[in-house]
Amino acid sequence: MSDIELDNDTILSFKSGDESAFTVVYNHFYHHIFSFCKYLLPAIEDARDMTAQLFILLWEKKETLDSYKHLRAFLFLNARNKCFNFLRDQKARSAIDRQISDFTASEQTAILFSEIESELVTRIREEVEKLPDYYRNILNLSYYQGYNNQEIADMLQVSEKTVRNAKSIAIRSVRMIFLSRTAQIGFTLSLYYFF
After folding, report:
1. Which CATH number fits domain 131-194: 3.40.50.1820, 1.10.10.10, 3.30.70.1140, 1.10.260.40?
2. Please, are residues 48 and 34 in contact by the beta-carbon 8 Å criterion?
3. Which residue intervals define the domain RNA polymerase sigma-70 region in the entry (predicted)?
């Protein structure tokens, strides 16, 4: 259909809400608008959806359009703007998806190391609790309550050297427990990075 066939009577009928006039307008412009959207958008389905949205918008705004020039300008300007908005939103959504993916990966790493750290702390506490009272008390005062060797010595009425020796013995006892666990932790980490 040529431009001449969209006469003023058809446009005025369309403006007043005549559905048959809308069909004439639709048939006249559809392929032009669809081709324009298809040129701007990456997928044919997106172009079809966009074209349909544009003709819905045209029907909603029909009362403001009273000439062929206005109809044509309305459709092409909105097609351009909506396609550009669509592409911008897609790009932003893609960037957000990448950020979420990166965030999720970093969160998984943090969670893994937190779990390992938590397990180690729990194991250390368990092993400290198994020590004889004297050694356990010194480690608790030193590492969990923050007293220095001299303060502990004053509290227990022993020499500072005695405290140092007791801490050394206690730490060595606890450390032995983890010699067998080192390989297990390393294996857990390697599984995470491999998969």
Report:
1. 1.10.10.10
2. yes
3. 26-92
